[in-house]
Amino acid sequence: xxxxxxxxxxxxxxxxxxxxxxxxxxxxxxxxxxxxxxxxxxxxxxxxxxxxxxxxxxxxxxxxxxxxxxxxxxxxxxxxxxxxxxxxxxxxxxxxxxxxxxxxxxxxxxxxxxxxxxxxxxxxxxxxxxxxxxxxxxxxxxxxxxxxxxxxxxxxxxxxxxxxxxxxxxxxxxxxxxxxxxxxxxxxxxxxxxxxxxxxxxxxxxxxxxxxxxxxxxxxxxxxxxxxxxxxxxxxxxxxxxxxxxxxxxxxxxxxxxxxxxxxxxxxxxxxxxxxxxxxxxxxxxxxxxxxxxxxxxxxxxxxxxxxxxxxxxxxxxxxxxxxxxxxxxxxxxxxxxxxxxxxxxxxxxxxxxxxxxxxxxxxxxxxxxxxxxxxxxx
Length: 379
Fold this sequence. Notes:
single chain, alpha/beta, Rossmann fold, formyl-coa transferase, domain 3, 2 domains, six-stranded parallel beta sheet, three-stranded antiparallel beta sheet, 16 helices, elongated
């Protein structure tokens, strides 16, 4: 069975999260992904908080090649590899590759069919194009922080990196579109701005309340631990089902709660009724009872619960891998399920693990020359 992107070679020069997540997704779909890293320390995420786990989360299904691109010899090998590749993904600081003579205009001469994908915090043009950005800056500048948190608190950073991951997936979509368009010999320079992914315009903070729907927030559950909460979101047509699950059929026609507007106007009293019911049940019990009645509800899971979740395991969304320096660890699987191209997850590479084999395959470099280049700091 052939994988969806079999035969596609991707050079991943990115670090941290957005770019690596993009390249990993392409790898899940069958592309050959070569992670090009600096020889001494590689992707900065390898040393994040003195733990490689952040790196491991976004770099499965790749091989690692180290090259010191300040060296003319390394640049020559890099150009040779680019000449045999389909996609280059980079997220260096503005102008970094241009200064090395390896920017879009330079590499286009080496490989006119190359898809050059660049991720920048503020894009490659505009008043802030020269500035660097990370996830919190993107959330702040894109308006996301101003709608996150409680009304009496400050704008709040959303810890799950919605900007980084979303940007990576947007880039993957753009690359796939460019691959399709390339069949018509159209050159593609793709730009994805981290900030552009964070677009929201309402500067009001409402905590856990979603719109004016009640029930429509997080409710405390038994036995009362810090994460013993469940989120219930019942659209207006679901109100009769909610009343039935609560064991309170009388509430359905109660003038205080009969319409969506009534429930919103009397939300404090209604939320108290719901909380009284949820507080005597576990979050999983509430989720099951509401879910079986057709009312969306989700238990608030901590990380250990997510990793042990039977639904995620059944869908191969939590997989076990072995990374030699660390040992066995759990990571996220591929969310895209293609019937004729099932993803096979392989462990992330150690720094420079495939340098010798890749230089031999793509550049004809002999093992003894790789040893010399390593001694000279070229690889």
